[in-house]
């Protein structure tokens, strides 16, 4: 728009300029140009002279796109303002960012800083201590489980291996051989022997308590998984079981045949480990049954070798807990010469020719007389009150007898 206007002014100006000031009179010829130009004041030749221009009102018809231009200009103005706002915001942002920059380490720390640092240090120490504690706990757990595994059996195995190695590499006169005489490897019972690869039936030395003497025991290594220490056997009847308190205390008979191991030894064996009791029986008709007790313990002599037995299973019936009135559990041991029974009017041991944990008097008596045939009279033979036909009326009042009885024990946790 400006350029069009300038052109028009220039055009008229040139027209006026083309005429001489003296031709002013000829106004009509020049009246077509609405712009009037005339000197303003006295002007001589070749002098600078002021001129006055008179411009008429001017109306220009602009193309309609100019409206758009106006809007664009407005938008442009708005954009400029936005840009300016953005710039301002940016500056503020930068200022804030500068302020939040970490302080120069040369600056002296404030009390707040020091407290924060102390807290951080304590937190770090606590974290380290917690990790250390966790590690220690893990190590304790590992040690605990290791020590549980390192039971006596394993220690003995290790000792045996060391001994074996030493023996193989040692001449007979070396100092180790003389020291060897003082080293003893202990086996608590037949199950320990079995674990040491001694799997044949036989007589083995066992040491249930190291403060007491070792003794020989008959080991059944072949029946029911092996590892059984036999505490009583009746198979041929050549050994009398009508014995004194002292004899039952020490044991009697032949370990390869009929015998009673001895109450002191049975006490030590059942004290050393939790024991299972297994009783095998065969009657004269060839019927074989068994009774098993998952818990079996015999107290010491001071407590009169009291019996503690429970958790029956088997086929022969639970004659040790026959009834309320005939219950051998928790009863003292009695012999013909020592009455610890529950029968007030007499001595059960004497009456039945046996040493046993009598009640008043009995529903079982495995130490009764060994009869090799059915018998009459007092029921003083080997007896098991829950035997399948024991209460049946026998012809002519004969009583059932047993061909064999074996009582044996094994640790509860034994794994064949
Ligand atoms: Ca009595």
Give a quick precis of the structure:
With 416 residues, the chain is α+β, with helices and mostly antiparallel strands.
Share of helix among residues?
Answer: 25-40%
Order of helices and strands: HHEEHHHHHEEEHEEHEEEHEEE
Largest sheet: 9 strands, antiparallel
Q: Give the strand tally.
A: 13
| Secondary-structure-derived class | alpha+beta
Which ligands accompany this protein?
A: calcium ion
Low-pLDDT ranges = 1-9, 11-30, 102-108
The proportion of residues in beta strands is 15-25%
Oligomer: single chain
Quick check: average pLDDT?
83
Shape: rod-shaped
Distance from first to last alpha carbon: 117 Å
- Could you tell me the radius of gyration in angstroms? 61 Å
Number of helices, counting only DSSP H or I runs of 4 residues or more: 10
3D architecture notes:
Residues 95-106 have a biased composition (Basic and acidic residues). The protein has 416 residues and is an alpha+beta fold. 35% of the residues lie in helices and 17% in strands. The protein contains ten helices and 13 strands. It has helices at residues 2-18, 27-30, 65-99, 111-149, 152-168, 175-180, 190-195, 245-250, 263-272, 348-351; strands spanning 36-39, 51-54, 202-206, 215-220, 228-234, 252-253, 259-260, 275-283, 288-298, 307-314, 364-365, 383-384, 402-411. The strands form three sheets. Strands 3, 4, 5, 6, 7, 8, 9, 10 and 13 form a nine-stranded antiparallel beta sheet that branches. It has a two-stranded antiparallel sheet with strand order 1-2. A two-stranded antiparallel ribbon has the order 11-12. Strand 4 and strand 5 form a beta hairpin. The model is unreliable at 1-9, 11-30 and 102-108 (pLDDT under 50). Residues 339, 341, 343, 346-347 line the site of calcium ion (CA).
